[in-house]
Amino acid sequence: PGRLCAIFHTDDSRYVLYAAIQNQPLQKKRVRKLVARAGGNKRVLDKRAGSFNFPELAVEFDINQDFPGSKSTTEQWFLVTMTWNEFPEGTLKLYIDGDQVGEMRYDQRFNDDRPLPHQFSLGMRPSTWKGEMVRDEDGAMVESSPHTSMSIAEGGLEIQGVRLYRRTLTPDEIRCLLKVERQQNKQG
Questions:
Q1: Per-residue pLDDT for 69 more than 50?
Q2: Distance of CA 142 to the CA centre of its chain
Q3: DSSP 110
Q4: What burial class does residue 130 get, using C-beta atoms within 10 Å of its C-beta: 0-12 exposed, 13-18 middle, 19+ buried?
Q5: pLDDT, position 71
């Protein structure tokens, strides 16, 4: 079974960034995923895949390798940037070291009409926060809470800093931020 850890999570499960480790027995390997969600906390049928999905995008890589496009092996930091714009319709983007690695559009179908978030958490998801509300076969509404099943450290990660902005950064601003962070990291 897979394990996951929340990196960033809002109290309504509408905006989420998490890392996951999953076994892929057929390929005989374990993979890591970096998954971003924005704009919704309700699953919608994906007709191409034949499954119900959140408005999420994922970057997958072999457990024995670093993030796609990275140049090093073990002891390196990465600038992971998640952007979204607008609500209830907009675009979610994920960047690693200034390079866009994914994009997804979301719309009103993913919105379950709960109030927008009031709180966020870093490195964990408090168990008291609401998850997705799912209608059971008998018609009853039940909560399907996503629970953190591994710590950031168990996932081989460490959060060294977090920045939140009230607006969506442009790709140029993200690359500029990467330059600043690299310079600060070199200085110690």
A1: no
A2: 24
A3: G
A4: middle
A5: 42
